[in-house]
Amino acid sequence: MDRNITIIAHRGWWKSEDEKNSKTAFERAFDNGFGVETDLRDIKGEIVISHNMPEGGEMTFEEFLKLLAGRDLPLALNIKADGLADEIKRLLEKYNHTNYFTFDMSIPEMVYQHKLGLNVFTGLSDIVPEPIMFDRAKGVWLDCFNSDWFGAEEVKKILDKNKKVCIVSPDLHKREYKNVWCMYKDIPDIMLCTDYPDEAKEFFNGKN
After folding, report:
1. Does residue 62 carry a pLDDT above 90?
2. Of 82, 83, 109, 171, which alpha carbon lies 20 to 30 A from 2's?
3. What pTM did the predictor assign?
């Protein structure tokens, strides 16, 4: 059955390492109804999709938004550089896309994005145990760098405070993930960011 878990494909639905953050991975994710997590940086006055420092020739954020083709799918925008907020807002408004959140930015950038009215998520993890600007954030990017330190109760506590939650699946950190997924099966209205969106869809639909 549908358990109200929104699946976010980490850097798109890629099937080989070279497909990460590529047009192929994004189109595959969108065409199968998955949200997407991706990385935003800037080069020569444009926002581009790039996890590492851009070298030129990367897909622009505007080209990425065009791939959505008006579909209301969630976007998790990992902010890798300061000073992008105004252009991010302009492009999101240009394509009338409101189903998104930004995260992982610096503190000054986070403050500015909040003032600008962007949907900002704060971070909570085994490395950052006190989320910054929790009261003003729309939600929480819940991460597990070194261990599976949180469970269903921690997730529910965040939801009870009227915050959205996007859980980072342990597979992003090269750890076993199916046992951890079991803890979230009965929690409604959460997001899960994973490298295996197809497996997650099958798992949370009760077919696994």
Report:
1. yes
2. 171
3. 0.96
